[in-house]
């Protein structure tokens, strides 16, 4: 169930798949149930250059296009979705710096992000707002050569391990419309008054930490204002989140693919009424639907990534891919549990972990209800009469 793959893509994706089979799958079961950060896996990913996959070669990265990066994310999510969380926010930060950063910011951040010396985080949500991004309250006030930041951010993946966090703030709270008063600060933890606090306990998505971030009179140098111009933060973050949706779609495909693999293997081993359950039509129908939907989700993710690579507007395509792939994932892991029967409900089997991970994808990077609104508005604009 593969899509068209170029020779260079096959080599890179093959390297990632080998890494997943060798370094992640043998240890994921225990790490997930212990909710333990994958320190050794992350260290090996840094050694292999995973953190610089999408960073241009001139800054020490591999310069992969979005399509290839999405394929790599699918493979990693197939092993353990949490590991894609470790590198996805990092990727978003590097994308923001590359696309919108000043020359000085590119020279200062990208080489260290490529090696993993700096670990990127991404923060928009707050305790009182999620999908309504313009309702954020975190304030950054200019004071000489610094910005003084006060506020609280929520749902920060890599909240503890990140060293630089692309943070959406209000630099002009009186701006009309509101989004024109928002900016992005590349907030570094080396400056006092910026810390990760409450660690959020989650149903799934274990291992990678999700935290609250607190700014208390935190001073960040004005040179950390992304692009050096105030009022551009909302547009910058929306461009990044659009790319993040391709990543989430790829994660959905990866998790669904793993659920399918486990199911079709189990169905040929488990016997009921004297034959493998794969011989029963009810199970065959489930396997057929799973494989068909996963293939469609993979193609939609590839289409969205290619559109981003072409530099075209892709809000509709990214929204569609995220919506379809994550709903496919959610449905596939549910069917995988049914195929496994009582064993699927047991922590002894991997399906239980996949079942806990899938819900995060339908709400992360913009809920699927929001995706439908984005898709509809984009379509109405394209087909305007």
TrEMBL record:
<dbReference type="InterPro" id="IPR036250">
    <property type="entry name" value="AcylCo_DH-like_C"/>
</dbReference>
<dbReference type="InterPro" id="IPR013786">
    <property type="entry name" value="AcylCoA_DH/ox_N"/>
</dbReference>
<keyword id="KW-0285">Flavoprotein</keyword>
<dbReference type="Pfam" id="PF02771">
    <property type="entry name" value="Acyl-CoA_dh_N"/>
</dbReference>
<dbReference type="InterPro" id="IPR009075">
    <property type="entry name" value="AcylCo_DH/oxidase_C"/>
</dbReference>
<comment type="similarity">
    <text>Belongs to the acyl-CoA dehydrogenase family.</text>
</comment>
<dbReference type="GO" id="GO:0003995">
    <property type="term" value="F:acyl-CoA dehydrogenase activity"/>
</dbReference>
<dbReference type="GO" id="GO:0050660">
    <property type="term" value="F:flavin adenine dinucleotide binding"/>
</dbReference>
<dbReference type="InterPro" id="IPR046373">
    <property type="entry name" value="Acyl-CoA_Oxase/DH_mid-dom_sf"/>
</dbReference>
<feature type="domain" description="Acyl-CoA dehydrogenase/oxidase C-terminal">
    <location>
        <begin position="231"/>
        <end position="380"/>
    </location>
</feature>
<keyword id="KW-0274">FAD</keyword>
<dbReference type="Pfam" id="PF02770">
    <property type="entry name" value="Acyl-CoA_dh_M"/>
</dbReference>
<dbReference type="InterPro" id="IPR009100">
    <property type="entry name" value="AcylCoA_DH/oxidase_NM_dom_sf"/>
</dbReference>
<dbReference type="InterPro" id="IPR006091">
    <property type="entry name" value="Acyl-CoA_Oxase/DH_mid-dom"/>
</dbReference>
<dbReference type="InterPro" id="IPR037069">
    <property type="entry name" value="AcylCoA_DH/ox_N_sf"/>
</dbReference>
<feature type="domain" description="Acyl-CoA oxidase/dehydrogenase middle">
    <location>
        <begin position="122"/>
        <end position="217"/>
    </location>
</feature>
<protein>
    <submittedName>
        <fullName>Acyl-CoA dehydrogenase family protein</fullName>
    </submittedName>
</protein>
<dbReference type="Pfam" id="PF00441">
    <property type="entry name" value="Acyl-CoA_dh_1"/>
</dbReference>
<keyword id="KW-0560">Oxidoreductase</keyword>
<feature type="domain" description="Acyl-CoA dehydrogenase/oxidase N-terminal">
    <location>
        <begin position="7"/>
        <end position="117"/>
    </location>
</feature>
């Amino acid at each position: 169930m593969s899509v068209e793959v170029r020779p260079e893509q096959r080599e890179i994706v093959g390297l990632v798949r080998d890494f997943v089979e060798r370094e992640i799958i043998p240890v994921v079961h225990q790490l997930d149930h212990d909710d333990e950060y994958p320190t050794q896996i992350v260290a090996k990913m840094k050694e292999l250059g995973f953190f610089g996959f999408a960073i241009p070669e001139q800054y020490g990265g591999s310069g992969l296009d979005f399509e290839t990066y999405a394929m790599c994310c699918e493979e990693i999510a197939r092993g353990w979705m949490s590991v894609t969380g470790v590198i996805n926010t990092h990727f978003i930060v590097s994308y923001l710096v590359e696309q919108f950063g000043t020359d000085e910011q590119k020279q200062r951040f990208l080489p260290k992000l490529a090696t993993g010396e700096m670990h990127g985080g991404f923060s928009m949500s707050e305790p009182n707002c999620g999908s309504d991004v313009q309702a954020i309250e975190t304030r950054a006030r200019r004071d000489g050569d610094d910005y003084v930041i006060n506020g609280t951010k929520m749902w920060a993946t890599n909240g503890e391990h990140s060293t630089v966090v692309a943070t959406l703030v209000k630099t002009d709270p009186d701006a009309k419309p509101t989004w024109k008063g928002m900016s992005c600060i590349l907030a570094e933890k080396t400056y006092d008054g910026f810390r990760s606090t409450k660690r959020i306990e989650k149903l799934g998505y274990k291992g990678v930490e999700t935290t609250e971030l607190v700014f208390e009179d935190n001073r960040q140098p004005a040179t950390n204002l992304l692009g050096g111009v105030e009022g551009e933060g909302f547009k910058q973050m929306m461009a990044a989140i659009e790319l993040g949706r391709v990543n989430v779609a790829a994660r959905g495909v990866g998790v669904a693919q793993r659920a399918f693999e486990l199911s079709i293997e189990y169905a040929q081993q488990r016997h009921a009424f004297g034959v493998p359950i794969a011989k029963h039509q009810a199970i065959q129908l489930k396997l057929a639907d799973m494989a068909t939907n996963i293939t469609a989700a993979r193609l939609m993710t590839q289409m969205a990534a290619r559109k981003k690579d072409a530099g075209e507007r892709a809000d509709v395509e990214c929204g569609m891919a995220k919506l379809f792939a994550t709903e496919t994932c959610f449905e596939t892991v549910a069917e995988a549990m049914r195929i496994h029967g009582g064993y699927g409900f047991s922590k002894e089997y991997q399906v239980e972990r996949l079942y806990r991970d899938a819900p995060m994808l339908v709400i992360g990077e913009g809920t699927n209800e929001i995706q439908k609104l984005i898709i509809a508005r984009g379509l109405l604009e394209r087909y305007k009469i």
